[in-house]
Design a protein that fits this description.
Strand content: 25-35%
Structural class: alpha+beta
CATH class: Alpha Beta
Number of domains: 1
CATH architecture: 2-Layer Sandwich
Helix content: 25-40%
Number of strands: 7
CATH superfamily: PAS domain
CATH topology: Beta-Lactamase
Length: 173
């Protein structure tokens, strides 16, 4: 499964380099060793009973949205239909320990639709802590000056990445 953007490929290679024998890197190890060039486009998401909490939002993502969602639930920021798709994907990533590559669309404040590529991968956490995953994205088209993202359309069919635990039942690569 080739990546479209070199930055998503680099992000995946970095994550894979930190993983040991099919075990995802720990959240703290990932943060301690994250390349400075990639962290601005990174989100760390926590799966809670109430929904997906944004635990970390890199400055590049904040700039794209012109808003910081850190410590907010994604359900407050995205449409219900889109939230359910993304929730299903994040639950699968966290519970099955599988990766996902997505190509989606974002709507901007200039009413443009721009494509992006994203990769979402599980992170280990201390026992008793909520599951986490890390998401990295790269727009395939640059935002204009003073333009911001206003909505995202999540891919219904992510490309699953077997990280050593097999693919989720009923899914295809």
């Amino acid at each position: 499964m080739p990546f479209i953007t070199p930055t998503c490929a680099s992000f995946f290679a970095h994550w894979k380099n930190l993983a040991h024998e099919g075990v995802s890197p720990h959240s703290s190890a990932f943060l301690d060793r994250a390349p400075a060039a990639l962290m601005p486009y990174t989100l760390i998401l926590e799966l809670l009973p109430e929904g997906i909490l944004v635990r970390f939002m890199g400055s590049g993502v904040v700039n794209r949205w012109r808003a910081d969602f850190t410590c907010e639930y994604l359900s407050a920021r995205i449409e219900a239909s889109q939230h359910q798709r993304f929730l299903n994907t994040v639950e699968t990533i966290c519970r099955h320990r599988v990766g996902a590559r997505m190509v989606g669309q974002a709507i901007t404040s200039f009413d443009r639709s721009i494509s992006f590529e994203a990769v979402c991968l599980p992170l280990m956490v201390d026992e008793g802590k909520p599951p986490r995953c890390v998401r990295f994205s790269h727009e395939l088209c640059e935002l204009e000056r003073n333009e911001r993202k206003t909505a995202s359309i999540w891919d219904d069919h992510p490309h699953w990445i077997d990280l050593g635990n097999g693919l989720p039942p009923g899914t295809v690569r």
